[in-house]
Amino acid sequence: SDSHADDYILAQKSISITATRLTDEQMDHLDQFLQRFNIHYSDEIDEQTTHLITYDTTIPFVCALSSKVVHALARHLTVLLIC
Asked: Per the domain annotation, does 6 fall within a domain?
């Protein structure tokens, strides 16, 4: 396939981020990131959500299965764990 066409299609897919269990400082950083790259944010997972960002200190490098994480995994979304 034509890689330039693939890049174009990828670029056209809008990113929509949801977050769970982030600290206030992490949310501030996320807000800056969202504004800088003009990325949509939603408090809840919806049809447009593409990524979920989460943070949990209970067990290092293990993602807690919050309801948002379970929902995101069920929808095959990308889940990013901040360590």
From this structure: no
Give the three-class secondary structure for 55. Answer: strand
Question: Does residue 4 form part of some domain?
Answer: no
CA dihedral sign of residues 18, 22, 24, 30: negative
Amino acid at 1: S
Identify the domain containing residue 41 by its residue range: 14-82
Matching residue, tokens 């396939």: 1
User: Which residue is listed with tokens 């897919």?
Assistant: 13
In tens, the pLDDT along 22-68 reads 999 999 999 999 999 899 999 999 999 999 999 876 665 566 677 88
